[in-house]
Design goal:
globular; alpha/beta; Rossmann fold; two-stranded parallel ribbon
């Protein structure tokens, strides 16, 4: 099987790479890799859709895994064209090519397509209502894929972290080493999701879909996040105590919970963007992982690499 992985240098892409290599020949694409490019590892601007079309026609992938995204939530408020180009136009391009040429498109979306007003976890059938440009662009990407009628899996997830890239866990560790005290938002709730768990779930779904036809009824939109519901403040406190226990921090900083109104940001965030994962559990027999064991494994690995 010929596989195209976009966003391969990102935190999710790096976790997907070794799993996809077990399924076939993987060509990895990103704007900039560390180290020299190769025939199977290409530096390319994925916002240039003409070049993307040329690449697709040359590679003829059976499976496209689109882990590429514009994820700078605040920056998207001022640069909406860049956000929509990567989060909406690129997925639409990949989807239309897949519809014309066959194969499967696996794409990632976000809990930020919701407004955060629901007290119950959001299901796939709930009405989106994004509060910011990032969420709007990701929702537009979903719509473009669905409109193409290609064979597709759209996986909404939330609060992704890992031991590399830009994410909340690494930001908190950096700040804990720089400052003796931190103020952290307490009134936003979600489900932190380890990129490795998200990649493993993706691999499981792809394996179940290989060889099945579109009429199997498994294609479509699903929610996956790890199972623990928490706030940014409580997540940060867990990061610090876990980092101390594995030797990444000598001492945790003093932490103070604050309302998001005291920490102004360009983009408004949903107050409660918890996702309901019942559908993916029933359809693919996937059980979400817990936060404690996942975060501990992530930080232990980070400690061993330092």
């Amino acid at each position: 099987m010929k596989i195209l992985l976009t966003g391969a240098a990102g935190q999710l892409g790096q976790e997907l790479q070794p799993l996809l290599e077990g399924l076939g020949d993987v060509t990895s694409v990103d704007r900039q890799f560390d180290g020299p490019p190769s025939a199977m590892r290409l530096n390319q601007d994925l916002g240039d859709l003409n070049r993307v079309e040329i690449l697709l026609n040359r590679l003829q992938p059976d499976l496209i895994v689109n882990a590429c995204a514009y994820t700078a939530v605040d920056a998207a408020e001022k640069d909406s064209s860049a956000a929509f180009r990567l989060n909406a136009d690129l997925p639409g391009c990949l989807a239309r090519w897949t519809q014309r040429n066959g194969g499967l498109l696996f794409h990632y979306s976000t809990d930020y397509v919701f407004d955060g007003q629901n007290r119950q976890p959001y299901g796939e059938e709930d009405q989106p209502g994004p509060l910011n440009v990032y969420g709007e662009s990701k929702l537009a990407g979903e719509w473009a894929i669905e409109a193409s009628r290609c064979r597709q899996i759209i996986l909404r997830t939330s609060w992704v972290y890992s031991g590399h890239g830009n994410n909340f866990v690494l930001s908190m560790l950096r700040l804990a080493r720089e400052r003796p005290a931190l103020q952290i938002v307490k009134d936003q709730t979600g489900c932190p999701t380890w990129a490795r768990n998200l990649a493993a779930v993706s691999d499981e779904i792809i394996n179940q879909l290989i060889g099945k036809k579109q009429e199997s009824g498994l294609d479509g939109l699903y929610h996956y996040c790890d199972e623990t519901v928490t706030t940014w403040y409580d997540f940060a406190c867990l990061i610090f105590t876990t980092a101390e226990s594995v030797g990444l921090l000598d001492k945790s900083p003093e932490t103070t919970p604050v309302d998001s109104s005291e920490y102004p940001q360009a983009a408004q965030r949903p107050a409660r963007s918890v996702l309901n994962t019942t559908l993916i559990q029933k359809t693919f027999q996937i059980n979400p992982r817990g936060l404690n064991e996942s975060l501990t494994a992530c930080l232990q690995e980070l400690q061993n690499s330092e």
